[in-house]
Amino acid sequence: MKYISTRGGEAGFESSLAILQGIAPDGGLLVPDELPQVSESELRALSRRSYPERVADILARFLTDYRPDELLDYARQAYAEDRFDPSPAPVVGLNKYLNREFVLELWHGPTGAFKDMALQILPHLLTAAVRKTGSRDRVAILAATSGDTGKAALEGFRDIPGTDVVVFYPEKGVSDAQRRQMTTQEGANCHVVAVEGNFDDAQAGVKAIFQDPELSGELAAAGIRLSSANSINWGRLAPQVAYYFSAYCDLLAANVLEPGERINFVVPTGNFGNILAAWYALRMGLPIRRLICASNRNKVLSDFIRNGTYDRRREFFRTLSPSMDILVSSNLERLLFELAGRDPAPVRNWMADLRDKGQYTIDAQSLRRLQEVFVGGFADDQGTTKSIRELYDRLDHVFDPHTAVGFNVYERYAARSGDAARTVFVATASPYKFCPAVCDALYGNGFSRGRGEPALVEALARESGLPAPSWLQDMAGKPVLHDRKIDRNRMKDEVRRILLKSED
Ligand SMILES: *Cc1c(COP(=O)(O)O)cnc(C)c1O
To answer: Residue 16: phi, psi to the nearest 5?
Structure first.
């Protein structure tokens, strides 16, 4: 299998090079030249396997220049029991008697958000890619983060020989816990920088760095190659496809589903990586009915799914679900490529319109294909808070604000459509990552004001019955090691400063 660019430029890369490269040379995103298929009998066989075996099986279909036993070894290390407590991707029933609604909990990893699902295995895939391509370069992993990718990338790549990690986060765009997770990061190869701006600024800055021939020339001369830890990297997406298969397999194994029964997934969405992985699973043969794409008040995707116009020219809001505060969802480009029947010409035009006019409108046929599967909706902070409260009252279950956005959107969709298909809610973060917002929802607005983090953690532990995660305890009392803050136009210089040790 080879990897091609969504914009049609020169590519045809092996999977290892696609992972090493992160982004296509023409600025497009790399995608496999065909989508592998998983048959119903293969799905049944997978349902008897462990999580690492399921991941290795799915990855082997995409990463054809990695050996299956090699992938299994990486998956076993990445998803080991001491990293995911109690397991990587458990499916939890919400109502014992109805057996209709389930939660896929993806936040049991070392940093408390679903980004760990890919970023624990990506370092294995990437260091192997360096070997496979015969490269002698050091790899510098760049990441822009809306809060969770940064920490997960730092944790995944910390002290991995031959690598550096540089994380840019929006100075005012992350929760306190997210910021402290990153600024206290240990590891000689870890670099964390605050950017004055929002996530879109940070992401645009990173993309510009990738497309800067001058800088990549300077880095190449110093034996350094850039790669990406954002979901523009195929190595982030492929492991995410696996947990959709795994969730379905768990429900098959529990005899909840009829063979072939189609189910819905509800996905709180920002950069469109997570939900895109679900769409790939669908195209590979996983029986999926609807994908419910849930946004917060930055509802650019929800509008797009409804009317086919993607318009980023709008106010940017900071919300209680900061990891979804995004107006330019990078991975949508991969879906556009598919909706256009894998023709790169319209994709190039739409992306040019986005750059030049701040918006684009897809054709009627592509819109129809989009709406066959995707349902869009959004919840504001008030709705998010209300959902956290109601879910607690009704189900005795505490969810983080991102996951709550998904519930809020789904409830209105279900009422409107009468869709009674079994539904899996993707839970993307531990509620402990957003203690103040969750406590305010549970105990009443204003509760968190004037209370310190330990008091809030204790209050949340009491109400939720969830043990406080180990990353939270580890963080307490750690000194801040990264306090650098830069203007958003200085990201390139910052990369030079860090990687080439150049002072200006
Ligand atoms: C990153 C993130 C999201 C959004 O995921 P995308 O793949 O960017 O759509 C949602 N919730 C949480 C907690 C996240 O960290």
So the answer is: -65, -40
